[in-house]
Amino acid sequence: MDAPRILLTNDDGIDSVGFRALYEGLSAVGDVVAVAPADDQSAVGRTVSEVVEFADHEYGYAIHGTPVDCVIAGLGSICPDVDLVVSGCNKGGNLGAYVLGRSGTVSAAVEAAFFGVPAISVSMYIEGGDDWASLATEPDDFTTARDATTYLVDQATTSDVFDVADYLNVNVPFRDNAGVTGSIPMRVTRPSMRYEMGAEQNGGREIELKDGIWDVMRGDSVDDPVGTDRRAVADGEISVSPLTAPHSTQHHDALDEIVADYTSNTETNADAE
User: Fold this and answer.
1) Residue 56, marked binder
2) 11 annotated to a ligand binding site
3) Is 81 flagged in the annotation as binding?
4) What is the Cα–Cα distance from 89 to 104, expressed in whole angstroms?
5) Which fold has domain 5-272?
6) Closest Cα partner for 42 from 79, 75, 98, 89?
7) What distance in Å separates the CA atoms of residue 221 and residue 13, rounded to the nearest whole number?
8) Among positive and negative, which fits the CA dihedral 203, 210, 89, 138?
9) Is the N end or the C end of the chain the one with fewer CB atoms within 10 Å?
10) Where along this sequence does the record place binding of a divalent metal cation (predicted)?
11) What φ, ψ does residue 156 adopt, rounded to 5°?
12) Is residue 77 a known part of a binding site?
């Protein structure tokens, strides 16, 4: 096929270094149109606006809205003929089933799926700690994420990957490129089901909501099973989770019986009146 036309978005904002790294990398394998938030929209999930303003940008278009707004505006108006949506590269991992729904990066890929357009969301996990914000400040720091994304775009759009998966959620472990040689292995994963949210009352009328997984992820304390996204990045591997949308579950007899009983009881009560 011809070089794919790619809508590139993110949630860190169109001027973030991770976005720039992907734009430059993907431009080598496709026709890239940026439709991305004008500013940081991290952790907004699938929040959508009624009206958004947009402005021209050297990469394409800056949208004053959320990542989902960008996908809707892009696929619905600006560039409806794209072959693929790529969202990222997010600074920080989007790992585990409970995190995916609140991630603006992943939500952009989910929204593309409802349009019937395949998508890839890309994040870079940084172990960090108190110095987390000072890491990955240049496009070159996203080299591994850029190369992995470019590879997946090049390969997945010419195969049957998206006949089964609606989108791929990719997480790349960060490493300091200075003096590092050799490639990082890639693994097909599933989102970890481990849940670490908790709440603590701080006296008075405030309750602090805490995600304990980031403390667990530091060092060698991750005990998620092999095959999960979180285990892969903890082991220094690139995690690729093939996912689908909309959310669904298997049909089962137990719910059929409950619904049938409700209908039966409603009809009986109506006859008795």
Assistant:
1) no
2) yes
3) no
4) 11
5) Stationary-phase Survival Protein Sure Homolog; Chain: A, (3.40.1210)
6) 89
7) 32
8) positive
9) C
10) 11-12, 42, 90
11) -70, -30
12) no
